Amino acid sequence: MSEKEFSLTKLNKPQQWTNLADMAKKHVPIIEAPEKVKAKEHFTVKIKVGGIDGVEHPNTLGHWINWVQLFAGDRLISKVDFAPEMCNGYLVTLNVTLNETATLKAREFCNLHGVWEGKERKIIVE
Amino acid sequence: MSEKEFSLTKLNKPQQWTNLADMAKKHVPIIEAPEKVKAKEHFTVKIKVGGIDGVEHPNTLGHWINWVQLFAGDRLISKVDFAPEMCNGYLVTLNVTLNETATLKAREFCNLHGVWEGKERKIIVE
Amino acid sequence: MSEKEFSLTKLNKPQQWTNLADMAKKHVPIIEAPEKVKAKEHFTVKIKVGGIDGVEHPNTLGHWINWVQLFAGDRLISKVDFAPEMCNGYLVTLNVTLNETATLKAREFCNLHGVWEGKERKIIVE
Amino acid sequence: MSEKEFSLTKLNKPQQWTNLADMAKKHVPIIEAPEKVKAKEHFTVKIKVGGIDGVEHPNTLGHWINWVQLFAGDRLISKVDFAPEMCNGYLVTLNVTLNETATLKAREFCNLHGVWEGKERKIIVE
Q1: How confident is the model at residue D79 (pLDDT cuts 50, 70, 90)?
Q2: Residues of D in contact with C79 (CB under 8 A)
Q3: Which of the four, A57, A62, B80, D3, has the lowest number of CB atoms within 10 Å?
Q4: For the whole prediction, is pTM greater than 0.80?
Q5: D84–A contact, CB cutoff 8 A
Q6: How far apart are CA A39 and CA D55, in angstroms?
Q7: Do residue B40 and residue A88 have CB atoms under 8 angstroms apart?
């Protein structure tokens, strides 16, 4: 995948996770969460956009990560909007509550390079 | 301030911080941030909605904290949308970057009790 | 499909369009747009949520249409947030611009009954 | 007011409405609404961003109107997000419902030139 390989009209999602292109390293959101949680007790989810192998996404008035979304299955848990220039590092931590086992996924939107999705994370609710 | 004292059409903001009514304890967003930071280096801001003296806000399909906004002066830094039932505890942590000394403020919207603002926090940029 | 038939965790989308249940009539967004447009010239898209056969969705502080999204293929064109009680009828008109033939779809979120999608509309760009 | 006169950290609002600079003509949102309405019956509000004297705002991936907000007094009625390149002309029409006489105001955010507010419009509810 070269620097040019992105789509403004389709979801961008790496097919393999070895040898990621810089374009992907900058854009893909990474979810950090526990593997097992208790039903209806909140736990911490961290979402970091880009920064894989230290390749951070720019943050200027004309080119930035506009928002991040976190889903449990198809259900939107949260959307976080960023103003340009104000949120370097693009790291968000949220409280999340689940009733049953679900798969978390995160998406982000870059105004120049479209919507990106990273690896899903299954959370087992005990 | 009694339980009834809130407005759907005006900003709700406690005038004094001793003897807060439960209505305020549930709704007011509290900002946690360092007093001094370095220009253009990101730092961590924590926003907790409600929970003052342990009085937490409900989180049901018909009554929840819909969103939180963080401002530096008049500039919106971030808006975080919550889906009902999914984010108990309403705690958000964000990376923030400032170029110059600014005053942070946070607002939240509860669908039944309107928009609430808490204490401002001045951040000195060195 | 009975009144109970909806999901909070999956996309709700009618499988057939005759004999819609009231639940669907209230929630499904309907797109009105021209069949053919010119590239890069804006045209009008109307999105009406619910109201099919006159079955309108409620609009109270605890139960309302929270937002509508309009997509061209997978690309989000616009998201419109509604405050509770303020937007009876849930009708939005937008300018849209396309570069190439695309399929419009609309989704809405009701805080009690989840995300609903209606009929897609193909727009031919000449 | 010259092309340079805008702020990213303060609200931009013209002080006088004769001899508007192009910067203002491009950014200021204009509200179109009836002067008198009936309580709890919805009416149509049109919001046009820019285009005063034909001076339209650009709409490119790196420079566009990111969103428009409509308020009744301090209460947010609706926020409309635009994706870059998709909504030339920036015209939105909404249904609005009021219980009592209120003053409408509209704000928009341009990623390069900040938040702009236009003329308020008083709506008398009979």
Answers
A1: very high
A2: 80-81
A3: D3
A4: yes
A5: yes
A6: 55
A7: yes
